[in-house]
Design goal:
The chain is an alpha/beta fold. 38% of the residues lie in helices and 18% in strands. The structure holds 2-phosphoglycolic acid and zinc ion. Residues 247, 249, 290-291, 317, 340 line the site of zinc ion.
Length: 427
């Protein structure tokens, strides 16, 4: 057995896909293995997320992370030296205890998640294992391994496109694809077709934060209609081979029971907004709707779940913030049928896995997700495979911080050979 005692913990400032500072943690074991991970950051964050600790002040718009880096160097490093990085639960429990707050507000969730993920990388490297295999625990060396269904953005909106349209993600999933690789092939054709459609109508104006086409539309529904046309133009049958998934990210424009989407010259009461979302699901081949209602509207979430839960997944992101307690409460209240799982919302891998387990215990689907502020870090792909999540969401089909993840999944699927399983219709 390799010696997985932690010998060194370091932190450095690196830069994310939006040119903002972020935290990279590095852990070295006594055996000389190295693990490294970078914290991502969101733009449309749920208020219950672990703190993305920033310095404030003037440098880099107040977004510098010197405080989080100092937390790693001065507090976390001395505390973790001599501990076993193969004991993820022990490492994470120590981080949680050292921080001592509910939302990682003292050390910073960006500090703790980078360290927590780096520990997993170091342990996997020490054992000479791919991270997903290490994460899978006593995953057998043989037997089937399921690849997640990729959920891929074609048009970006909401907080990722200056609220040009209200909804944040207009995505596709490919339930009829036979492999992860084939789902990417199909999505590439649809992404191209959507770009060509925009160009022909003189509306191609570049891309949004996560690589989706910039949404020059008169209304939210026009984006859905254009997406259906793009799917057809790429040669696929909408609803049958390729379906639509939305992230409404309603907390961006809904509060205290009133929804004020920018493109509409009116506001909606909670029940009216719910009916609007339900209307989209009735009119378009939509199989998944994330955050249809705001994070402070559990009754609205339960109502939408009752109305469309039989036809489409109702996914909680800001509403659940990768918290096992919130997942359990939502399930008890009849809200949601799926959980978005973002490690940096929780702050450690152990808490992230607890939220995923709570979702499974409720009979929900699970979607491991990236953030809008990303880097070349591909940890979440290994988490999705290692934890056997149902879906993987990492933004669009452009820009290297996104493609790094899709490409890593291709490598994993290829490495699995005939052990790989993919069943888009079941998720
Ligand atoms: P965020 O967006 O990373 O900006 O929060 C991603 C999402 O809402 O799913
Ligand atoms: Zn979301």
């Amino acid at each position: 057995m390799p010696d997985t005692t932690i010998r060194r913990v370091a932190a450095r400032r690196v830069w994310d896909s939006r040119g903002r500072p972020t935290v990279e943690a590095e852990i070295e074991t006594a055996s000389g293995a190295l693990g490294r991970a970078i914290a991502p950051a969101g733009a449309s964050t749920g208020s219950g997320e672990a703190l993305d600790r920033r310095d404030g002040g003037t440098a880099f718009g107040g977004l510098d992370v010197q405080g989080a880096l100092a937390a790693v160097r001065r507090e976390i490093a001395p505390m973790l030296r001599g501990r076993d990085c193969a004991d993820q639960a022990g490492v994470d429990a120590a981080l949680i205890a050292l921080d001592g707050t509910a939302g990682k507000t003292r050390l910073g969730g960006n500090a703790t998640i980078a360290v927590s993920m780096a520990a997993a990388h170091a342990a996997a490297a020490a054992h000479g294992m791919a991270l997903w295999r290490w994460i899978a625990g006593d995953a057998p060396d043989q037997g089937p391994v399921r690849m997640p269904l990729p959920e891929i953005q074609i048009f970006g909106g909401g907080a990722h496109a200056d609220a040009r349209v209200d909804l944040q993600d207009f995505m596709v999933v490919c339930p009829a694809a036979h492999s992860f690789a084939e789902a990417l092939d199909w999505t590439a054709e649809i992404y191209r077709a959507a770009g060509a459609l925009m160009a022909e109508s003189g509306r191609r104006q570049g891309i949004a934060d996560e690589g989706g086409w910039w949404p020059v539309f008169a209304g939210n529904e026009e984006a859905m209609a254009t997406l259906v046309t793009a799917i057809e133009r790429a040669g696929f049958r909408p609803g049958e081979q390729v379906a639509i998934a939305l992230d409404v990210a309603a907390s961006q424009f809904g509060r205290a029971g009133t929804y004020r989407p920018r493109l509409d010259a009116r506001s909606y009461a909670s029940a009216e907004w719910a009916r609007t979302v339900e209307g989209w699901v009735a009119r378009y081949p939509i199989v998944s709707v994330e955050d249809p209602m705001a994070e402070d509207d559990p009754a609205g979430m339960a109502g939408v779940t009752a109305a469309i839960g039989g036809r489409a997944l109702v996914v909680g992101d800001d509403f659940l913030v990768t918290s096992a307690d919130r997942v359990a409460a939502a399930a008890a209240g009849g809200a949601c049928t799926a959980a978005l799982i973002k490690p940096n919302q929780a702050g450690t891998l152990t808490e992230t896995k607890s939220a995923l387990d709570a979702a499974r215990a409720a009979g929900w689907k699970t979607i491991v997700s990236a953030r809008s502020g990303e880097t070349e870090d591909v940890t979440i792909v290994h988490l999705a495979v290692g934890w056997q999540a149902d879906q993987l969401k990492v933004g669009s089909f452009a820009r290297s911080e996104r493609m790094a993840k899709w490409n890593e999944a291709l490598r994993i699927e290829e490495g699995l050979g005939d052990r790989a399983r993919f069943d888009g219709r079941s998720v």
